[in-house]
Specification:
The complex is a heterodimer of chains A (140) and B (559). Chain A is built from 3 helices and 6 strands; from the N terminus they run αββββαββα. With 140 residues, chain A is of the alpha+beta class. In chain A, strands 4-3-2-1-5-6 form a 6-stranded antiparallel beta sheet, with helices on both faces. In chain A, a hairpin with a 3-residue loop joins strand 3 and strand 4. Chain B is mainly α and 559 residues long. Chain B folds into 3 domains: 230 residues, no CATH class; 105 residues, no CATH class; 74 residues. Chain B has a 3-stranded mixed beta sheet. In chain B, strands 1-2 form a two-stranded antiparallel sheet. In chain B, helix 9 packs across helix 19. The longest helix of chain B is centred in the C-terminal third of the chain and has 31 residues. Classes of the chains: A alpha+beta (140), B mainly alpha (559). At the A-B interface, helix 1, strand 1, strand 2, strand 3 and strand 4 of A face helix 6, strand 3, helix 7, strand 5 and helix 18 of B. Strand 4 of chain A pairs parallel with strand 3 of chain B, so a sheet runs across the interface.
């Protein structure tokens, strides 16, 4: 019940549209960027009060923020936990790659970059994450 | 509606024009030379008649015009600024809703028991577990209607991008579904199959098959041939010349569907994003380029189509990609230093010229001081670790000797222990500095092939080569265009870019320094395109450009 109350307070606070919230350095955070030819999009997931703010930006003049509930954040983090440290070199695919940086997920900080055309095992996990975040942004 | 009809009519007129009736790849270089005769003296235009007819202001600033709102016919097609793509997509989306509902309804209403699980998934995801319409049987028409309508809405959002996304400073919304339920639903095979079928129908409706064929059979082969001719003209060394021409001649057109790349906004394979976002790319490992359908939805001007294709083909031999390819048949820089490597580039003197302040000023990404310090620390730590490892190996070798003095053995064992502790400490320090697994091999540039990362020179070169071949292409294919049509056409080549290329992404905390590998639009158009004497001559600009032209001269030399 307490969690639900906190969550409602949080939603009301954030829906006021101020976009101002306190950040705790220990909170989990994830940033995923998709570079594809001349186009670039970035997702960021920032933990707030157990839930998270999912933000989307692209260089196609798109910007969207979506709040997700604690159980949805948990689901995203479960998927992200499958990431290991495998990386490709950016110079192998300067125009088509997925890159992620995360803090505090699975007790570790991680940065990884994978080419769309590469064979990194992380590619599948990053694609799944990108799918999930796209779904969140589109189905809000 | 009238505007759309007139665009369609003009487009049909364009298709029927005699220029297109030529055979594929029919551009003859000798004929071209004759047709270009009036452009030969264009490098230093005479200005005796300047007083009679002053140059258009477009001769100094074309960028502003390329961003002006409206529909602009340049005699080869129409370039549109505005939200025509969004309008087309919104129309198709609204027309598709019934098709999507019917598509789901047909399957969910089926007596086939294999659909029962999907019905339950849908019921749970949509929050219809307690709905009176679904109380008895999920196959009841009233329940099927609700389920189908709900799934159609989810699917439409996955297939079509939301027009509302194109807002800046958007406030927050709340995700209304359970992400786990949605993920289960959308990964379900039966759901996936239905959605894939529906998406294919939408993709067919939005793909410009006619222009795709035209690019494949006419525009692309002609541009490729002109680029090969330009290489022959400018690259002095015969072996390098052959390598570059072979590579360019081997490029294939991968079509207008860019879905295979994973999609721009994410990786949803059903999304039509990759068919509606203006984009194009060259992929070096496939030696292939794609001209994404999104370009064609907003701009049918051949100036843009030819320019973008020339730019993408040029990427195959840009200063980065020129060094990629089979080891025995690629250009190898002998110098590891970019300053010296620039001088080796087969288009002699060009890269230095493109970096100049009065040209397009292609720059390199400024080094982030914090990253530079961290890189130095990481390199020092790695060196220290290697040194300790060597010392340990030396001691262990001595310890293996049976003739070793017992007192010395004790001293060496202690020293070995201390070194091993030191090694552990250094390794842990390195892990911390590297920010966890993976960092050391990806974002810290330990090995960076020349000109491939954080450098605008690749894009600047590709623009340059495109600007070199397009005047020849247009003169050959459209010999009767007027100066005004050329002015409109060269602006159309960039029309639609104003909303994309000039919008950066706000910096996200902790990420790399923002740096666009494309030079500023202003410089790409006003400093470089308008510096081309051939383009100026076609546009009727008599006064020479105030900006530096980086000329291509026979024999591989530049001024």
């Amino acid at each position: 019940m307490k969690i639900a109350t906190n969550w409602m307070v949080f939603l009301v606070f954030c829906s006021m549209g101020t976009g101002v919230y306190a950040k705790d350095k220990n909170l989990r955070e994830l940033q995923l960027s998709v570079t594809y030819g001349d186009k670039q999009s970035k997702f960021s997931v920032q933990e707030i009060n157990g839930g998270a703010l999912v933000e989307f930006h692209s260089n196609y003049n798109e910007h969207r923020k979506v709040l997700i509930k604690p159980e949805d954040l948990k689901y995203i983090l479960e998927k992200a936990a499958a990431l290991d440290g495998g990386s490709d070199k950016k110079s192998d695919c300067p125009r088509e790659f997925l890159s992620i940086s995360s803090t505090g997920i699975g007790g570790k900080n991680l940065k990884s970059l994978v080419c769309f055309t590469g064979r990194q095992p992380n590619l599948k996990t990053l694609t799944v994450l990108s799918d999930l975040l796209t779904t969140v942004i589109r189905l809000r | 509606m009238n505007a759309r009809r007139s665009i369609a009519l003009l487009y049909l007129g364009f298709l029927a024009s005699p220029a297109w009736a030529e055979t594929p790849g029919s551009l003859d270089l000798k004929i071209l030379e004759n047709q270009l005769g009036n452009l030969k003296g264009a490098t230093e235009p005479a200005c005796s008649s300047c007083a009679e007819k002053p140059d258009s202001n477009l001769c100094q600033d074309l960028r502003k015009f390329s961003c002006a709102p409206g529909d602009f016919d340049d005699g080869t097609g129409i370039g549109v600024t505005g939200n025509i793509i969004q309008q087309k997509v919104a129309d198709l989306r609204s027309k598709s809703r019934n098709t999507f509902i019917e598509g789901f309804s047909k399957r969910l209403g089926s007596a086939d028991e294999s659909y029962e699980y999907l019905r339950k998934l849908a019921q749970s995801t949509l929050g219809l577990v307690d709905a009176p319409q679904c109380k008895n049987q999920l196959r009841d028409p009233a329940c099927v209607k609700l389920l189908s309508s709900g799934l159609a809405d989810i699917s439409l959002k996955r297939v079509f991008p939301s027009a509302e996304l194109q807002m800046t400073g958007a406030s927050s919304f709340i995700f209304g579904y359970s992400l786990r339920d949605i993920d289960l639903l959308t990964q379900n095979s039966l759901y996936e199959n239905i959605e894939a079928d529906l998406s294919k129908g939408v993709q067919r409706a939005i793909t410009d098959q006619t222009m795709q064929k035209k690019i494949a059979k006419k525009i692309f082969p002609d541009i490729r041939m002109l680029i090969a001719a330009k290489i022959k003209e400018n690259v002095a060394d015969p072996n390098t010349q052959r390598q570059l021409i072979d590579k360019v001649n081997g490029i294939q057109f991968g079509g207008v569907d860019c879905t295979l790349m994973g999609g721009y906004m994410g990786a949803l394979s059903v999304s039509i994003n990759s068919l509606i976002i203006p984009n194009a790319y060259y992929q070096h490992n496939k030696n292939e380029f794609r001209y994404c359908n999104g370009f064609l939805l907003g701009n049918q001007s051949e100036f843009q189509i030819a320019m973008v294709i020339a730019h993408e083909l040029a990427h195959s031999i840009d200063p980065c990609n020129i060094a990629k390819g089979p080891s025995a048949f690629r250009f190898n820089y002998s110098s590891k230093e970019e300053v010296n490597a620039e001088k080796e580039y087969p288009f002699q003197g060009l890269l230095e010229c493109l970096r100049k302040e009065d040209s397009v000023r292609a720059s390199k990404m400024p080094v982030n001081p914090q990253i530079a310090v961290e890189q130095k620390k990481i390199a020092d730590l790695k060196a220290a670790i290697e040194e300790i490892k060597r010392a340990i190996a030396k001691i262990e070798k001595k310890l293996k000797k049976s003739s070793l003095d017992p007192k010395e053995r004790v001293v060496l064992r202690e020293k070995n222990l201390t070194l091993k502790e030191e090694l552990m400490e250094k390794k842990s320090e390195l892990d911390k500095l590297s920010g966890g697994v993976g960092f050391g091999t990806s974002l810290v540039k330990t090995e960076n092939p020349l000109f491939c990362d954080g450098d605008q020179i690749g894009e600047a070169f590709s623009d340059w080569l495109a600007y070199e071949v397009i005047p020849d292409y247009m003169a050959s294919k459209h010999p009767s265009l007027t100066e005004e049509q050329f002015q409109t056409g060269y602006a159309n080549a960039f029309r639609g870019f104003c909303n994309t290329m000039e919008q950066g992404i706000p910096q996200v905390r902790g990420q790399e320094v923002a740096f666009d590998v494309h030079p500023a639009m202003e410089d790409r158009i006003n400093s470089m395109l308008l510096a081309s004497p051939k383009i100026r001559a076609q546009m009727g600009c008599k006064a020479p450009s105030k900006r530096r032209y980086c000329p291509a001269l026979p024999g591989g030399k530049t001024k």
